[in-house]
Amino acid sequence: MTSVPDKIVDTAWRLIPTPIARRLRAETGKRFSRFVLVAIVGVVTSQVVLGILTGPVDINSAGAAGVIASMTAALVSYVLSRWAWERTGKPDLLREAVPFWLVSMAVWAVLGLTSHFASVWAHSEGYTHLKKHLVVQGAYFLMNCVTFVARFLFLHYVLFANKSAVPVGPVGPEQVAAPDPHSSHASPAGPELAPVEAARGSDTGPMALVSGDSGPPRS
């Protein structure tokens, strides 16, 4: 059964002109287009959480609100990023999960500082609560766009890079495949058939004695 994200991606491909879609369907373009969807979901999640914390909840620290919002979005992004790079099964703790969350922590720090300084600046300008809220949201969104590019480069070229390719090297004697006995290029009379052919072609072989073709003629 096709998943909901795959259906959304397929629908988006139909809306893109064919020449552009052909380039985007290359490996990097495919991952980038999927990560765009991941980023959109992550940004929406973080913006909603940030709006709730700085709006109805009215948390005292805008920096803390930014960190909480980015942490929530990172959890969603991690799950969807594994889908974007077609990673299945249990994730590798040291090679995948830990690096992802370390980078996410750096992003949280950047977004938290962005929210904090945006709030301080809006407060120094004497903005109302609504204007202050909009300034923080706007600064947070712009920094999300910057970190989006950095996160994609890290995920595509470092974390989820395809490292399973076997390097091409000189072929040694032990790497030469044995000939296929059923192949049309195989010799019709291999070494294993030589004794049989020798027996058939010999006048004094066992087959000759059985058939009675050898020995003195009968009177």
Question: Overview of this structure, please?
Answer:
- The chain is mainly alpha-helical and 219 residues long.
- It has one domain (4-159).
- It contains 8 helices and no strands.
- It has helices at 4-15, 18-24, 27-54, 62-84, 93-124, 129-159, 194-201, 206-211.
- Helix 3 (27-54) packs antiparallel against helix 6.
- It is globular.
- The model is unreliable at 164-172 and 183-212 (pLDDT under 50).
User: Which structural class do the helices and strands define?
Assistant: mainly alpha
Order of helices and strands: HHHHHHHH
The share of residues in extended strands comes to under 5%
Overall residue-averaged pLDDT value = 74
How would the global form be characterised?
globular
Helix percent band: 55-70%
What is Rg?
35 Å
Low-confidence parts: 164-172, 183-212
Oligomer: single chain
Largest sheet: none
**Number of domains as seen in the coordinates:** 1
Tally of strands: 0
Output the number of helix runs.
8
Q: For the terminal residues, how far apart are their CA atoms?
A: 86 Å
